[in-house]
Design a protein that fits this description.
78% helix, mainly alpha, 91 residues
């Protein structure tokens, strides 16, 4: 039986390593495309949820301002349209 020379063993090892590295590169590219496809769907859903949350936060803030305005107007015995609130700070 003929034994391979040292050069053949080194070349076969290097070729095997480079082939495996190329396969890994393609696998990583494919996986990143799959993950990006799923994350794009999730980002769209997240954007819709954030818009709903922002809208509900604005409505809640408007309700709080209306309640504070009504309380101040009642305390001052004036109509709400007669008072002007410049800022509201949480304590």
């Amino acid at each position: 039986m003929v034994e391979p020379s040292d050069l053949q063993v080194v070349l076969m090892g290097m070729i095997t390593v480079f082939i495996c590295l190329i396969i890994l590169i393609f696998m990583i590219i494919i996986m990143s495309k799959v993950i990006n496809a799923f994350s794009a769907k999730n980002e769209a859903e997240t954007a819709v949820q954030e818009e709903r949350k922002d809208h509900s936060d604005k409505v809640e803030n408007q309700r709080i301002v209306a309640a504070i305005s009504a309380a101040i107007a009642e305390n001052l015995n004036k109509d709400v349209s007669q008072i002007r609130i410049h800022s509201i700070k949480r304590l």
